Amino acid sequence: MPPDSSRPHIAVCPGSYDPITKGHVDIISRASEIFDELIVAVVNASVRKNSALFGAEERVGFIEDATRHLGNVRVDTFDVLIVDYARKVGATAIVKGLRAISDFEYELEMNQLNRHLADDIESVYLMASPQYSFLSSSGVKEIATFGGDVSDLVGDEVARRLKEALAR
Ligand code: ADP
83: how many CB neighbours lie within 10 A of its CB? Predict the structure, then answer.
């Protein structure tokens, strides 16, 4: 069935964003061109095995700073199944970025599970831009831990906070 043109098309873009990188910003800004409204949904779950370096509030602040120029993007946190969160906010799509082959395998599994739970919510994948194909939050944290320069990979404030939180 074609989409109902009388209501806005809302998508959620979920992730840990610990912290947001230029690769995330690239996906968010490209997705914001496709949907009427894009909600960047930050995982705030204590059930996760690996705890985040930055608290949810600070991660949200970094994303708000990095996406302020995009008028139809807002940031929120969630701690339920992403399909339940998507339904709650009236979203019909989940947007994800795909980097290397390893992302594909994980995303394929998540896709099957999410469709099993909610076949009315479609997942949409945007390919990483080549310059960000190997950029991840964990990689950035690793570089920062050893005092490496991350200024090309994250925003200025994030780079400053990474240095403060991690540099040995
Ligand atoms: P990470 O894997 O960097 O910790 P997240 O868990 O926050 O990232 O991922 C949120 C979403 O952003 C995922 O769909 C992930 O594949 C995507 N993503 C992360 N980094 C990039 C990038 N450099 N280019 C494209 N998509 C990315």
Answer: 21
Of all protein residues, the one whose alpha carbon is nearest to atom 2 of ligand 1 is: 136
Mutation choice for ligand 1 from 59, 95, 99, CB with most ligand atoms inside 8 A: 99
Q: Is residue 27 within 8 Å of 135, Cβ to Cβ? A: no
Q: How far is the CA of 1 from the centre of ligand 1 (A)?
A: 30
In ligand 1, which atom is closest to the CA atom of 20?
7
pTM for the predicted model, two decimal places: 0.93
Q: Are 167 and 142 in contact (CB under 8 A)?
A: no
Q: What is the pLDDT along the chain (168 residues), one digit of tens a residue?
A: 566 777 889 999 999 999 999 999 999 999 999 999 999 999 997 655 578 999 999 999 999 999 999 999 999 999 999 999 999 999 999 999 999 888 999 999 999 999 999 999 999 999 999 999 999 999 999 999 999 999 999 999 999 999 999 976
Ligand 1 pocket residue status of 93, Cβ below 6 Å: no
